[in-house]
Amino acid sequence: MNRQAQAVVLLLLGGAVVRASVTDLYLRYVKEGLRPFLVAAGVALIAAAVMTLWYEVRPLLPGRAGTPSGEGDHAEPGDHAGDSDHGGHGHHEPRVGWLLLLPVLGLLLVAPPALGSYAVSQAGTTIPGDGLPDYPALPDEDPARITVLDYASRALFDAGASLGERRVQLTGFIANGPDDRPILARMVLSCCAADGRPVKLGLTGQAPVGLPDDTWVEVVGRYSDRIGRDPVNDAEIPYLDVETWREVPTPKRPYE
Prior knowledge:
By secondary structure, this protein is α/β, with parallel strands linked by helices. It contains six helices and six strands, in the order H-H-H-H-H-E-H-E-E-E-E-E.
């Protein structure tokens, strides 16, 4: 891969990063607050590519052809030794460099989906931190809209005291649970998808059944004192007593 080809790949990569950053596509890979850094990185890549192309093309422009005066008139005898050593053949850049096009094409043509049920099956449930000493009151609305992470934290660390008998509404996707029953899950990011970890909730009551994995649902229910175990890391999995549920489209922000 010569320098012109490298610049084109760099230009495509920068364009793909900028395209993902100005749409909701970037939310599949990083947290929302990182958008400005992605835009800046994409613009920097594009600028570097344009400068490289200009440096390569400038000598070919009209009026700039040929060797500048005074250059090349005093070549040393050993300057072209490399050509004779290799029979006049130039060096070839490793073709593996073209593999850099794969992530670019992935971003431009086939955007991978957000982490889902497969990631849930491979990683144990986790709840960042050890809970709060005093959980804030739930929203006044009925049912109270809270995140899967918030419910799991209150159910485990607060034993449901801050939930009481209130109805709560959670949104997540369906995954296969330890007892082959559906669970509600949501991925939590610290920075990007590479460090994503699942939060899993068991479902009792009118739990959704017969849905394929990665189906997004909105469930309404109440606190359940039932606790399960994750076979992946033996961590505790809280349960939710489901009263109603419905399918919903994949949210723009798939991670919590």
